[in-house]
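INFO  loader      accepted 1 record
INFO  loader      residues=442
INFO  predictor   begin
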Amino acid sequence: MPDADHGQLDRLLTRLVDKTITVEEFAALEGQLDGDAHAQERYLHYLGLHADLLETGVTPESWTAQGRGNSVNVDRRRRTTAWLLGAAAALILLGVSGVLFLRAPDAGFASIVRIAEWNGAVRWTGDGGRPIRGLRVGDELAGGTLEVGAADSWAELTFDDGTKVWASGPAIVTFSEGPEGKRIHLRKGELSLDVAPQSSGRPLLLQTSSAEVEVLGTQFKVTADNSATRLAVHEGLVRVTRLADGKTRDVPADHHVVAALVRETTFDALPRGESVRSWKCDLQHDVRQGHWRPGAGESSGSLRAETHLFRGDFGERKDPVLLHSVVVRPSDSNGTPVLLTEGARLRVVGRLERSCSLHFGFGTHRVRGVLSRKYALSRKIELVEEAEGNFEVELNLDEIPRMRESFPGSPVGQELGWLWIQTVREDVGLEVTSVELISKQE
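INFO  predictor   done
INFO  writer      dumping tokens
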């Protein structure tokens, strides 16, 4: 990153450590860090600087006290170099003026959803861009935006009428409710919904970048990105409008539809196909997180890990962790579910720059259902010189532990939703060249 670009990066980092960063600024910071080794190095240095300041007693409170003539940790501060204090000045002054919300929403705001369950990198920002921290299961929230930052993270929210929404990361979704009914805006990611019967004339309305979904009461799941929305209905009936041309389709139970911004694409409600027991990932089209790199000559293409930040459960960490992730899912284009069976194995092939610990995991759905469950483990990958950085890992699905005690002990009998491979803190040039689910019969 050129020196001229450091100003914007440093401003974002300052707001990050002050906990005043907005949703848009956080997305901008992730964009700068993704794939930029110099920016990542500066990020780690900045967090180290912030930690050093705290250790030496230079905090917003001590700086303010010094301005009033009080002496706070003078001897220890003198041991800090001059450039360290100079770089800290802007950080500290901003820290004094920054507002940190460490409470539930104001009593004046009418709650519309309640936190039923959550795990991992989850953040809530209230209306007006107010970050709400220190949340717990059972807390009630007014309208706002939920961010689920990593593939191994999720959140379950419920409306007063019993409507349940599960968000699986990475995802960004906004909730609101007014005289016309419930409104959900899925910017990206995957949602599973179990919608209670809605009042006549007040349907639940879900909007994405390419579709508008009208629901009176049903179970369905929806996945959205910048160019297409994929929806599968398990119970009831859903009406989908393609925003590219205003065309509408009614999608009944056990059917799926794809609404893309390109009008020439198929926009028909099609029956779900019979489930399959094995699956080979089409990396270019099944990617959910990661950068596609076409192959050259006889070499196949690959997915390069995408860099993003884990700021802790509901964003309370003072030292956010860099994650480097590849996330894929079975394509919804043909509506064929992938069933996990006894004895099935997961095979992942890729490349690394050096030996490290890799984290593997996957999310599941009930057959013809919406509840997601997650299973994960880590594995130390030791590269050998003759392999030239290539690795191959084969995992028995029955041996991958559940992430919560409340989840089924085995994923057998559930449908595969998505799968992630990632490194934590270490950027080791992770590239994935093949992902396969292999049934016992094979």
